[in-house]
Every structure is written in structure tokens, then in C-alpha cells.
Amino acid sequence: MTGDAGAYRQLLASLAPHVRAVARSRCRSLGAPENEVEDLVQEVLLTIHLKRGTWDQSRPIGPWVAAITRNRLIDVLRRRGRHIIVPIEDFEDSLQAENPTPELSTRDIDSLLGQLKPQQREIVRSISLNGSSIRETADRLHITEGAVRVTLHRALKALSVFYRSSGARED
Amino acid sequence: MKTDDLIELLVKDSAPWRFRSVLAWAVAGGIVIAAILFFAGIGFRPDISEAVHSNRFLFKFIVTVSLAVTAIWVALSVGRPDGSLAQRGLALSIAPVLLAGAAVVELLVLPESQWTPHLVGRNARLCLTLIPLLSIGPLACLLAALRGGAPSSPGLAGAVAGLAASGIAATFYAANCTDDSALFVMTWYPIATLIVTTAGYLVGRKLLRW
């Protein structure tokens, strides 16, 4: 979180399994389908990223991550609550069947990407799916690296807002 | 999307920022806005040059500044996801305790016939209007900063922002107000603070969810 990309990547990658374990047990206890776990993981990671400045580095990171995870899970389960109160028996099959690509989100982030502005979506796709660097993306779109960075940041903030309003609050 | 792809995306956006600095800028911005409003609208009291030699006048600033400082310090904690009022909340009692102590002294040194006039003062209505008015700018700045944070309890964080904003506003207002008795301060300043704090709570509860 001090600007070292390699260390930051390692941190996020090491947090993901913890968040996944919490999300999985929470989904199980509420009878939510297993394939929503990775959506939760991704939403939590995105929030950790956007709120990274609130980690006080003189304190341990564990409680901070736990607090963020709890906040997002409560929100997610609240907004989906209506759809997931289903007897657990109904899901026994899907619970037992191991998800073949467990780290692939099923719908959320991909459908949310569709709500981004065209250039935001282009840049997100370019970096995440094609694995391009900021510079390559900038060259290909004929814009400056700074513009790519700003657009990427706005896209991530927008995604987080979409998450919070997605599927939600029909009430 | 794979989670690893998402992580790659996040890593590319990894310019570091610190909540502490964001809050510091918000405090600075809030003070500037309140100062502009103060000097453009009301300014110092006419007898300021004599007033600065009065302990009663100076003590008002000890109270208001300690309210602002402690509330900002608490906001730094409740603006974080793992923060809670239990960690630093006790600091918020400093300003009320100082003020209560001064009020007791005031009761001891003033003859009983003087209690009511000192308590009622002449500027109660101004106090209740100007402190909330001066606190709008600081409150807006602090709420904006907390929105970038991740408060464990949105309503609480908004209320603490309201306390801090009142402290800043009251510091300016105290330089204008000619009522210096601790009895006046103890009666009217808390009502003004309560108005701002309630506003902070109500707005925070809506605005600071994340």
C-alpha cells in the first residue's frame, strides 16, 4: 500500500483466500449458491483497494481486513437476502459439486462492466483481460498514460457504486 | 472475470493515499471557509485589544479548541473500518469537563444576583445562529473526507464530524461574542453544538455508508 506494485499484488493475492473462506462459510450458512462466493470475494477486494488509505499502518492489518469484509458481506447479504432464503437441501447438489474454476466470478462484475462508460470499459478490459500495461493501453488508445490512470480509477470507483446498487433495494 | 485479473487491475491503480492526510486537508479547508465567513460577516468584537487580557475571554478558546482537537482526533479513529468510539471517545469529555470546572469557579466568584444575567447574556440568539452557520463549511469538508474513509458506524462518524465542526466554528464565534462568562458558554454553546452534531449524525447516517 505504499506504491510498490509487486508488494501490493502479493498482499491482495494473500488476502483473497482468507476473504474467500469467510465468504464461502457465510454463503453456506445462508444457503446462497456457491457460485456467488467469488463475486463476494471480488467485491471485498475492490473495497479493500478503494479504502486502502484507511489502514493505519501502526496497527495490524487483520482486524482492518476483517472489518471491511464484514461490512461488505453484511451489505451484500442484506440486499440479496430476499433471494437466498431457501432451504439448504435445494443446494446440496451444487454445494457438493466443486466449482471447476473457483476463482471465476459468475456474473456480477462482468454484468457491471457493461454499465461502465465505453472508454472505462475498454481500459478495464485491456488491463484485466488482455493483461496490458498502462503504457500499452495508452499507446493503443492514443491517449496519455495519465488519462488511462484517471479513467481506470474512475472505473473502479464506479464499479464499487454499481455493486452497492446492484440487484438491490427493490424496496 | 478471474479474481487474479481483478487484482491486476487494482495493482495498476495503486497510487497510495492516507486517510490521515485527507482528513488534515479537510480540517484546513474547513478552517479557511469558516475564517472567510467570519472576517467577511462578523469579525472580531470591537474591544478585542482589551479582551485578550481577560482570562474569561481566553478561556473560551481553551474550551472550543480542545473540543475541535479532540473531535478531529476521534474522527480519525471512527472514520476507519476497525475504529470505534471506545478507542478514543473518552477524549471528548475534556472540553465539557474544562467548561464545567470553569462554571463552578464562576459560581463561586460571582455573587448570586449576577448568576442569571451572566448565564442569559446578551448574545444567546446570535450564538445559536452563528455557530451553526460558521460550522457548515467545516462540517461539509469533514463529511467529504469521511466519505473517502470507511467509518465503522456512519451516523457516529457524522456526529463526531459535527462536534469537530462546532469546535472550529465556536472558536471563531468566541472571538466575536462579548459574553465571556463560563455560565453563558456552558448554557448556549452546547445547544449550538448539539444542533450541528445532530445535523452531522443525520447527514452522516445517509452519506457515509460504504
The number of strands of chain A is 0
Number of domains of chain A: 2
Reported for the largest beta sheet of chain A, the result is: none
Rg of chain B (C-alpha, Å):
20 Å
What oligomerization state is this entry in? heterodimer
- Low-confidence regions of chain A: 84-100
Per the CATH scheme, the topology name of the largest domain in chain A is Rna Polymerase Sigma Factor, Chain: A
Helix content range of chain A: 55-70%
Which value, in Å, is the CA radius of gyration of chain A? Answer: 17 Å
Q: Kindly report how far apart the N and C termini of chain A lie.
A: 38 Å
Shape of chain B: elongated
Structural class of chain B: mainly alpha
**Overall tally of structural domains of chain B:** 1
Structural features, described:
The complex is a heterodimer of chains A (171) and B (210). Chain A is mostly helical and 171 residues long. Chain A has two domains: 1-101, Rna Polymerase Sigma Factor, Chain: A, CATH 1.10.1740; 107-171, Orthogonal Bundle (Arc Repressor Mutant, subunit A). Helices cover 67% and strands 0% of the residues of chain A. Chain A has eight helices and no strands. The longest helix of chain A has 26 residues, at 5-30. Chain A starts with a helix and ends in a 6-residue tail after the last helix. The model of chain B has no long low-confidence stretch (mean pLDDT 95). With 210 residues, chain B is mainly alpha-helical. Chain B has one domain. The two termini of chain B are 23 Å apart. Chain B has helices spanning 3-12, 19-41, 48-51, 55-78, 85-88, 94-109, 112-120, 124-148, 154-174, 182-207. Chain B is elongated. In chain B, 47% of the residues are buried. Classes of the chains: A mainly alpha (171), B mainly alpha (210).
